[in-house]
Amino acid sequence: MVAFADDSPVGFAHVEVIEPGAVHLEEIDVHPDHDRRGLGTKLIRHVCHWAASHGFEAVTLTTFRDVPWNLPFYCRPDSRSSPQSTSPYRSVRSSRTKLVGASTHRVVPS
Fold first, then answer.
1. How does residue 2 score in pLDDT terms, banded at 50, 70 and 90?
2. Where are the domains of the chain?
3. Is the confidence at residue 28, as pLDDT, over 80?
4. Is residue 87 within 8 Å of residue 80, measured between CB atoms?
5. Distance between CA atoms of 91 and 104, rounded to whole angstroms?
6. DSSP state letter for 102
7. Which residues on adjacent β-strands are paired with residue 61?
8. Sign of CA dihedral 91, 92, 95, 96
9. CA dist 2 to 14, 28, 32, 44, 64, Å?
């Protein structure tokens, strides 16, 4: 999913199917010239709407522990979260561990 301004891409959300019924928001980014305008929130809402309209029951994400603005963004009151022990999160942790070893740099927002 791509966000545009004046026909130029300014943000995107990359989603992967991780198991039946669940997708993972692998990456989301908004160009710094367009941040603080709600584009990230709109992209996440679009991902959630897309997932629900395609029969997915869960959207998961992880974020970098050391990026100061990420976790507060995902932990805002309008966010909903699922327990980290659910099957989709176990799938995410398992795939991340296989790719980069122990997942000490990423955290699941709650």
1. very high
2. 2-107
3. yes
4. no
5. 16
6. S
7. 25
8. negative
9. 9, 10, 15, 11, 22
What's the CA gap between 102 and 91, in Å, rounded? 14
Provide the CB-side half-sphere exposure for 9 (13 A, CA).
8
List 12's β-bridge partners, or say none. 2, 29
Half-sphere exposure of 35 (CA within 13 A, CB side): 8
Contact 21, 58 (CB under 8 A): yes
> 2-107 maps to which CATH number?
3.40.630.30
The residue written with tokens 């710094």 in the block is 32
What is this structure's pTM? 0.70
29-86 confidence digits (pLDDT tens): 999 999 889 898 899 999 999 999 999 988 888 877 787 777 667 666 555 544 444 5
Which among 61, 65, 45 is positioned nearest to 53, based on CA atoms?
Answer: 45
The C-alpha angle with vertex 23 and arms to 21 and 25, in degrees rounded to 5, equals 165
84 three-state secondary structure: coil
